[in-house]
Specification:
The chain is 5% helix and 58% strand. It has 623 residues and is mainly beta. It has a single domain, classed as TonB-dependent receptor, beta-barrel domain (Maltoporin, Chain A). The strands form six sheets. It has a 22-stranded antiparallel barrel. Strands 3-8-9-6-7 form a five-stranded mixed β-sheet. Its main location: membrane.
């Protein structure tokens, strides 16, 4: 009873001002954000897909400090952390596996060909992010391979004035660490510095971040360093060049991460380098082109026995070089988008061996608003993979305006997921072995939804059905055998998703409310008598309620999440932030998991209970 009353009091504290909405309410207009597709840029209000956007302002309101934490507040996105604050985490969308979701930075793929376990090894700080776009559903015709259940696109900021930035933060549960009471309490701390230089023709941004934690359990300490730099040169009004470079070094104890209970003394060291350069050229009033070159290099050193490197050590070195050319041609009856990409993947591994493969794809899209009240997007992605040959993935989106504020949308599309090098070649007996005969997963998804948008209110409610053929799952006949991946037939998912975003201002205070709910009904045709590694771990219910109130100098935010997985009990989490700003300084205090809930996101690793942290930000802007 006491816990229930505490929750009611906490929520009432934020919601009480809503009861006094009067005639002086100001309806702020929602910015017309352009969804960052690579060829046809579409305003958010005119997009016919299930797209959710988390803006920089949304991120500032949340009680978070990392990208992983930000993603947990996006509808349909499932983040499964093996350890908080920079340790390994997986992401998926709408019940898919972590290998079926594509991650991008400014439209550039950052997918790791070794394993998607490394996709979130991103050194991009929250301060450098303009927004995060989540496109749900089969997205091959927009982003190409491995966007089977959707894509997450991180859009970075463009420097608009010179500045200096610093951020110090730290926190603790004020409890002794599990299994090591004599070693004191569990803590986490970090520091970040950054600077931007703005000139009329060129702009630059630089960030360095250092984080460290002693680990909530035995052998789960972590330490990571992140560097991020990006720049832009505006040659003239029709031509510009953009570039980006980042580096991350992440070292963490991996007790229970992959092969519990035998991996109690394991450790992993991951180094990632990511770079891209692109240019945009407006060749005429109708035609523009954007060539792009990017490269992602990753080193993974997994030590099953960290005190004895002579045995059970796996060293992986992989590289993915991508070349792209995207174009847009505008006509009186619609816009055409054409593109081409090549991706060259290589791996040198003490465990997986030496392998390489190439992927080449061509895009074609068409969009028109020439039919009254109807918007139409159609296209296809033609793919050639050196391992699997030719594949074609078409898709179509339609939207019909019932009213200036109401729109119904329908989309249908296909996509694929190419097996990772780990799926094909891993050799970690008695834990896991690969299967070089795997075929790509292929999906079809149908979705219908109704959307509402009016100045300070947006709402979405939809239903989707997805069928995945050649679904890949790791299975075994009994506990004495290793897990091995097989194409097990069909994976069917039916889902319902809703989201409401509302904001208003009254009496010099701005209020934001974001409410979302996601329901999934998955089924997998698994042969009888086999033990599956992944098929019962997706979310069945997912709900969020984000509340905030702010004035010029102070802000309070409450973030609530309720999750239930297919094979685990439900859990409810509440985080709160109180912040105060004066001059160039912002001070904040967070309480995460305020009701000290015990829960698990991945494997058998318990996540931290109640957690207290404080931080201070300094941000100097050149006038």
């Amino acid at each position: 009873m006491k816990l229930k009353n505490s929750r009611q009091i906490l929520l009432a504290t934020v919601l009480l001002p809503l009861s006094g909405i009067g005639q002086d309410m100001r309806k702020d207009s929602i910015p017309e954000v352009m969804v960052h597709a690579n060829r046809l840029q579409i305003p958010f209000s005119k997009d016919n897909r299930n797209v959710e956007i988390l803006t920089a302002e949304d991120i500032r309101r949340l009680p978070i400090k990392t990208l992983n934490e930000a993603l947990t507040f996006l509808n349909g996105v499932d983040i499964r952390q093996r350890g908080p604050f920079g340790s390994q985490a997986d992401m998926s969308i709408d019940g898919g596996s972590f290998e079926q979701t594509l991650l991008l930075v400014n439209g550039v793929k950052v997918a790791d060909p070794q394993t998607a376990h490394h996709n979130l090894n991103l050194p991009i700080p929250l301060e450098a992010i303009e927004r995060i776009e989540v496109l749900r559903g089969a997205a091959a015709r927009i982003y190409g391979m491995n966007a089977l259940t959707g894509a997450i696109n991180i859009i970075t900021k463009t420097a608009k004035q010179s500045s200096i930035h610093a951020h110090l933060y730290g926190g603790s549960s004020f409890k002794d660490r599990e299994e090591e009471e004599k070693d004191g309490i569990y803590y986490h701390a970090g520091a970040q510095i950054g600077a931007t230089l703005f000139q009329e023709k060129h702009q630059h941004q630089f960030y360095y971040n250092k984080e460290q934690s002693n680990g909530q359990r035995y052998n789960t300490a972590s330490e990571n360093d992140k560097l991020h730099y990006q720049g832009q040169w505006d040659i003239n009004s029709d031509n510009k060049i953009e570039w980006l470079g980042s580096y991350m070094h992440n070292r963490f104890g991996a007790n229970g991460f992959y092969a519990a209970p035998g991996d109690k003394e394991s450790e992993e060291i991951v180094e990632t380098v990511f770079a891209s350069i692109s240019s945009t050229h407006q060749l005429s009033d109708k035609l523009s082109i954007t060539p792009r070159l990017s490269n992602r290099y990753n080193e993974d050193d997994y030590r099953y026995f960290k005190h004895d490197l002579s045995r059970a050590r796996s060293l992986h070195y992989n590289n993915a070089l991508s070349m792209e050319l995207n174009s847009r041609y505008q006509t009186g009856f619609g816009d055409f988008g054409l593109g081409w990409e090549s991706r060259l993947e290589r791996i040198n591994s003490s465990n997986l061996g030496d392998h390489e493969r190439n992927n080449h794809g061509a895009y074609a899209e068409f969009r028109t608003e020439s039919i009254r009240r109807l918007t139409l997007n159609a296209g296809a992605y033609l793919n050639y993979n050196s391992q699997y040959g030719w594949q074609l993935y078409p898709g179509v989106d339609m939207g019909y305006a019932l009213h200036p504020n109401w729109k119904v949308v329908f989309n249908a599309g296909s996509s694929q997921r190419i097996p990772s090098f780990t799926d094909l070649y891993i050799n970690q007996r008695p834990g896991n072995i690969g299967n070089p005969d795997l075929r790509p997963e292929e999906a079809w998804q149908l979705e219908g939804a109704i959307k509402f948008q009016r100045q300070n209110l947006t709402a979405h409610a939809g239903y989707f059905h997805r069928t995945i053929d050649n679904f890949i799952d790791y299975v075994r006949d009994n506990a004495d055998e290793p897990y091995q991946p097989f194409n097990l037939g069909q994976n069917l998912v039916n889902g319902i998703n809703t989201n409401i975003n509302y904001h208003f201002t009254e009496n010099h205070t701005t209020y934001h409310i974001n409410l979302g709910y996601n329901y999934l009904d998955p089924s997998i045709k698994t042969p009888e008598g086999v033990d599956s590694k992944y098929n019962l771990r997706s979310l069945k219910h997912q709900a969020k309620l984000l509340l905030s109130a702010s004035q010029d100098t102070w802000r309070i935010s409450v973030a609530n999440r309720w999750n239930q997985r297919m094979s685990r009990k439900a859990y409810f989490l509440t985080d709160i932030r109180l912040s105060y700003a004066f001059s160039d300084i912002n001070i904040y205090a967070d309480v995460q998991n305020i009701f000290d809930v015990t829960y698990i996101e991945s494997a058998a690793i318990p996540m931290p209970g109640r957690w207290f942290s404080m931080g201070v930000r300094y941000n100097w802007l050149k006038k």
